[in-house]
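Notebook entry, structure prediction.
Reason for the run: the old model in the group folder had no record of what sequence produced it. Starting over properly, with the input documented here first.
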Amino acid sequence: MKKYNKAFKFRILPTKAQEILIHKTFGSTRLIYNMFLDKRIKLYESEKKSTAYNAQAKELTSLKKELEFLKEVDSMSLQITLKNLDKAFQGFFKKITKYPKFKSKRNTKKSYSTNNVNNVIRIENGRLKFPKLKCLKIKLHRLVPNTHKIKLATISCEPNGAYYVSLLTEFQLDIKPVPNDNNIIGLDYFSKELFVSSENQRGHAPKFYNKYHDKLAKEQRILARRTKGSNNWYKQKLKVGILHSKIKNSRADYLHKLSKKLIDKYNAICIEDLDLKSIKIKNLAKHTFDNAWGMFVLMLEYKSIFSGKQVIKIDRYYPSSKTCSSCSSVKSTLKLDEKIYSCNCGLSIDRDLNASYNILS
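New structure, fully documented this time:
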């Protein structure tokens, strides 16, 4: 039996009193992050020394005696904030991330996390029990299985004012892969339609960014004319943030449904291992961003694990588009505007369909 993690995200409907406490926690965690980040910076500038989580956790205990309002919020959320700060520095020292920045209270999205200690976070009678907030109204659009143990919970507030909770769970599962010698499909990435399959299916991904492009451009032009830092600037920034959230959520919803459909239908899915960062052609890069191919692949991969299916990536440098799926000859060049693949053997076929055959084989 192997351990796995899975997150469940639900909409929550807090009362006014709970909203106030949630925003107090947002503010307190931001204060702790900024305060201890400032201490780290000053310590390094003055003594060329660095500190770590354990030392700062001791300082936090004494700080609560000075700042009484810190006792009103969940203490675990403050400790996790310090751990996140420490992780940010570790990532910087390993050259994985950029230098940690101070958090602004004007950020359009706010969140805080807390650990589930002694089962204080649980779902009972259709309600969510949560530290300090006691009992939260929650929209349970799906059940969290009894075999899943809640490890961590994150409460967030989107730019549109909606509140969500993400429950990170841990569970054990003995996955037995299904026979994959049949019912296999190959997917070739196609920027305009997400993919073309070896069964000549098309992804037909809606261009959500393109759909809201004109409206988003208009709101961003208004934002550019506002005085940065003014109340009107922050109000307009919120409008832009709401539009971005709508695009993101619509895209994620579509990709979740499409990936689930493919995983349920096929035993194995063969795809390209694309280097998305190398796509620098203006129009292709825009389509790739709008398709969210990378997100789609991640969804296929983790859903395949839980279903006992397989996602197989072919070699990144395999010339799937230049290779003839009939005689296996390889063209030296193939221009982007060549939509039909023509070979000396007599094959004439859609280039993306040809590539999907090669990926499958």
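Summary: The chain has a mean pLDDT of 89.
The old model has been moved to the deprecated folder.
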